Amino acid sequence: MKNSDLSKHVLVSLGDRSYQVLIQPQILPQIGRVLQDVGLSGRVAIVTNPVVNELYGRVVVRALKRCGFSPFLVVIPDGEKAKSMYWLSKILDELVTQRLERQEVVLALGGGVVGDVAGFAASVYLRGVSFVQVPTTLVAQVDSSVGGKTGVNHPIGKNLIGAFYQPRVVVVDPQTLQSLPKREWVAGLAEVIKYGMIADSKFFEYLEQHVDDLREQAEDVIPTVIRRCCEIKAEVVGGDERESGRRRILNYGHTVGHALETWGRYKTWIHGEAVGIGMVQEAGIARFLGMCTKELVERQRDLIQDVGLPIAMPSMSFAELWGAMQHDKKVVKGQINCVVPTAIGKVQVVPLFQQRIRQWFIANQAFRVKRLDPVRQGVGRPRLSKKK
Fold first, then answer.
1. Exactly one of 104, 208, 243, 261 is catalytic; which is it?
2. Final residue of a domain: which of 179, 198, 229?
3. Which of 21, 97, 150, 255 is deepest in the core (most CB within 10 A)?
4. What single-letter DSSP state applies at residue 385?
5. What is the tens place of the pLDDT at every residue in 121-176?
6. Are residues 260 and 340 in the same domain?
7. Is 3 a catalytic residue?
8. 157-164 and 149-154 strand pairing
9. Separation between Cα atoms, residue 279 and residue 25, nearest integer Å
10. Is 350 helix (H, G, I), strand (E, B) or coil?
């Protein structure tokens, strides 16, 4: 694939709040021009973390200054602990101290955590200032930077506090993925696989055919993957911005996944690992309920495992799992709703009834692990040979 093919942009169509996802290698040094093109000016609060700041902070600051912007840094910790009310408050304190004005900009430079908390800060500061997403992880580039979901975690539930707040533009530089730790890269592949499962069987087949390329971050595969995921998400979000209908399918793997993150106090798994386990378990639930075939369960499980993701549940009680799922934001009138697959490329939202899920949980005991090492449970596993 030629570089000229990599600069195709994706439109998120939301009327007067529509915006472009710009996917282009080496676009970071052009970030100032990009912001000018969407009508932004003045000061820019760059919210980032120490790791990303060390890698890309200077590049972005220089690019903004060249185009007449006045950037300043707001550095928060790396990891899920920064996705909290405490660090939201710290960001807001800095915006107030710097006297950022309503026509100026909050720019998120980093992964999903940075994007979520910076976007939430932008949504509430002065009742809303312009927001720009510059995602640097695979999860953020294919998923969390697009669609306007912002927020922080609560100790008893993931993403329980937040707002829908769309960015003015999303700037994706695939080359930033070269600096990702292996574990972060592999975790991001869970969200990639999710898009094939929920909306595009041909994309799922493409992923099956390029397992080695995915594991090794092949340069000719990455842009195709990013663009297709963004296209699917843009189409879904364009038709259902606030998750009242079809957008709920984007939560596939997240009912169990978010419960595991909460149960592990946001320390045991990183987000993509929990989603990978969640997709395996939610497909298992669909099979148990007679909604999908054994072949579907096995194909998805094989792909998730082959790219290096963990698939097994921890040794937890049903009460712990059910309790954590009850704090999910998709609960309606006390009813837990879950996205389950019915075919490759098709999913359905169904209510989960406690007794039936207890039965599934008991039947699934053999697939839980007693000693958990999430860093090595899946990452680095040699690719499994396929049955002929």
1. 243
2. 179
3. 150
4. P
5. 999 999 999 999 999 999 999 999 999 999 999 988 889 999 999 999 999 999 99
6. yes
7. no
8. antiparallel
9. 31
10. strand
Q: Which of 155, 179, 203 is the last residue of a domain?
A: 179
Catalytic residue among 80, 104, 191, 208: 191
Quick one: 70 and 14 in the same domain? yes
Q: Are residues 22 and 81 in the same domain?
A: yes
Tell me if residue 191 is catalytic.
yes
Q: Which of 83, 258, 287, 299 is catalytic?
A: 258
Between these two residues, 111 and 334, which has the higher pLDDT value?
111
CATH number for position 46 = 3.40.50.1970
Residue 384 belongs to a domain: no
Same-domain check for residues 212 and 335: yes
Catalytic residue among 53, 153, 159, 251: 251
| 251 among known catalytic residues | yes
Residues 290 and 348 in one domain: yes
Task: Verify whether residue 9 is a known catalytic residue.
Answer: no
Q: How many domains does the chain have?
A: 2
Say what the pTM is. Answer: 0.89
Residue range 65-91: mean pLDDT, rounded: 97
Q: Is residue 337 annotated as a catalytic residue, yes or no?
A: no
Catalytic residue among 168, 254, 287, 299: 254
What letters, b where the CB count within 10 A reaches 16 and e where it falls short, cover 112-123? bbbbbbbbbbbb
**Given 271, 273, 287, 299, the catalytic residue:** 271
Q: Retrieve residue 109's tokens.
A: 């430079």
User: Angle CA(138)–CA(141)–CA(143) in degrees, nearest 5?
Assistant: 95
Cβ atoms of residues 134 and 108 within 8 Å: yes
Give the helix ranges, DSSP H, for the chain.
Answer: 31-37, 50-52, 58-66, 85-97, 112-124, 138-139, 182-199, 201-209, 211-215, 222-239, 254-263, 271-288, 294-306, 318-325, 354-363, 374-377
Amino acid 337: pLDDT: 93
Give residue-wise pLDDT tens across range 273-315: 999 999 999 999 999 999 999 999 999 999 999 999 999 999 8
